[in-house]
Amino acid sequence: MPEKHTIDPRRPSRPNRLEDYWRERFDQSAALADDAARNIGRSYGHAVRRAVFLELIERHLPAGARSVLDIGCGSGTYFDIYDKLGLEIHGLDFSAAQLEQAQRRHPHAHLIRGELADAPPELRADLIVCIGVVQVVTDLEDFIARMAAHAQPGGRVILSCLNRLSIWPGRLLDPHLRFFSRGEMT
Fold it and tell me: Which CATH class is domain 17-185?
């Protein structure tokens, strides 16, 4: 595994208007992360998502798995779950402010600021997690290929995306989101 990576908030990522929009949004929300973390137990929806996520990991984690790469890890929302499973944590996010929150809460995590293309090519993980990211990716095929390249042989990928069949696409008029059908994701 590569050595621990450092976070350099001055390092510019590749320019992309869609990703720039979300980077700014996540940087702004980082100030709220501490308050949100304290109130996390009060949110039923969040508790349900975490329970489903843990169930998915336990069902699909390869035997002997030692590491996870969380793409779009933000402030480390799921790092405590990875800790409980004894996984070495590698997190990737383009928001320096979110990564600072993650590093403060989980100083042992190996964090990288940037896009998936910025991850060291030698970084491989037994589990790749990507929650809430693909809806802001402009080249999905390239992104999926890059994700697969970071999986250990026999590794697993857990990926979430916005569902085109849900009630939200017609209500969320945000041009910075993409919704997917099952066929588009298979």
Answer: alpha beta
